[in-house]
Specification:
It is a single chain. The chain has a domain at 50-191: C2 domain (Immunoglobulin-like, Sandwich), CATH 2.60.40.150. The radius of gyration is 29 Å and the shape is elongated. The chain has helices spanning 2-10, 18-44, 49-60, 198-223; strands at residues 65-77, 90-97, 108-113, 124-136, 138-145, 154-162, 173-178, 184-191. The chain contains four helices and eight strands; from the N terminus they run αααββββββββα. It comes from Neocallimastix californiae.
Length: 224
Amino acid sequence: MKKEESRVALKHPIDITNKSCIKLSNIEKAIEKVNELFNKIKELNVMEESETKDTYSRLFDGEEITGTFSIEIIYAENLKPHNKNGLSNPYVVIRIPDEDGSNGKNGSTELLKTSIINDTVNPRWDETFQTSIAPTKTLEVCVYNKSSFLSADAIIGKKEIKFNSRWCDHQTHELIVKLEPQGRLLIRITMEGEGEDLQFFFKKSKLRLMRTSNDFIRELVYRI
């Protein structure tokens, strides 16, 4: 009788342990929990835009901001004329000011520089830049006039803007920068990344768990 039982036992895979079965069960349970959590979050309506902005304000208020941002330079208007024909050859430069002067003579780090639009005081660029911003509280926005080969480019307008914590909510924000001494510039800024898109994260987690479960089952079937 004992010999028959041992023969039957040998027909089953000896390397599939109870621990493996428990792991598979835990994966299936995790998938259920992910679905439950996502449904509860939708019911509580925590993904409203206003609440997301308030959360970021609390997290970053008064702190230096850092990350990868998409900055779009749209247009400027009513710029100060600088050429003899009553127009200018404007281009935009955005920098991070450097208070301790460790970044060179100009004391700042250049983030982007647009193309030059000739003979206008109302230029339109529609140019987008992706840039990594080191920890900072302010950005320096300058509009220059492209001068002749022998003379330095003059500043048409300039403004230092405070880095707003609300820009870190991964939404696109339009900023109207009032330049000094005159003119204004429209830019759009968006923090890159997956952000607070909870639906994205839950779908990603669920798919990863499902792939793990399928791989686990496939391996068990292969061993059997």
